Amino acid sequence: MNSLERVRLAAKGCSGDQVPVGPYLARWTAKWAGIPISDYCTDGQALARAQLLAWERLGQDIIFPDTDNYYIAEGFGCKTKINKDKIPNLVQPALDQFEQVFELEVPDPYQDGRMPVILEAIERIHSRVGDEVCIRVPGTGPFSVASSLVGVERFLSEMALIHSGKEEASREAVNRMLELATNALIRFGLAELKAGAHLLQCGDSLASTNVISPEMYRIWVLPKHQQIFQAWKQAGALTLLHICGDNTRILDLLAQTGADIIAIDHAVDLRLAKQMIGEKVCLIGNIDPVSTMLFGSVTDVERAAHTCLEASALGGGYILGTGCEVPPGTPLDNLQALIRVGQSHHY
Predict the structure, then answer these.
(1) What span, in angstroms and rounded, lies between the C-alpha atoms of 189 and 185?
(2) Domain CATH number, residue 297
(3) What total number of domains does the chain contain?
(4) 33 CB-near residues (< 8 Å, 6+ apart)
């Protein structure tokens, strides 16, 4: 079996010849390849080169040309600052007032923001690996994109006012922001699929229950995630939901989003997640990217990988990976150990 076939089987809750392995490798690839992260985030050729060089060395089952959180938000008019060898930072939201959102339109993924950079990278990666390796691609989620339009603190404060029933809150404007962000992500994901992607991600970490309540997630975010995954799956894509943090309290809701794969952060008990939703969706995770991958030894990584396999691999529907992004500077030996353990685990 090839890598894409393994991932597709896992996404269906089945098992292939071995457990697929897909650590969250994004900016690590740039540092390892000697490419400035500022170039990696703004140049499709550099982004593709970093990812392919890492894959050629590691041989993981999933290539993931992820960059930062603002490539869609820039398409709405958000301003970022990109210093040499640093990821883009939001310096100016698109809106001064919530009511200005009604003047915005859904951006064009082929022209606006840095979405064209990612599309170019996908095309280059696909031209190299075709349908042999799973190409997972980024998509900043609607709650996170909407927050960038006015700034995170203002957005969350307004959400709290709305949720508590304050009449002065800008409910219609916030609804419009979420609607625009949802449609932007759907449109971008479909463009990524056309460029050669296989696995479309909605990464919405501001919607974590470390930030908002389970009730707020259920009312405000869940319907948008369902809309996104429905549109993508109708187009034939594999789908993945990634939300950082301890989301144990909403695992059942995450399984209702329609995503094929749910990413489980290291803060969540993977065995519990398997018990709660493992029969409904495929899980990926959940090795600690910092304490284990960055600062741990090869033995630590091997031990953690075996623990994850024991907790979630039985019966299929599991992809071995990290709970979140592997930090730049993580030892190559640790990544090789993770992939070696997964590739040697046969069902």
Answers:
(1) 6
(2) 3.20.20.210
(3) 1
(4) 49, 50, 53, 54
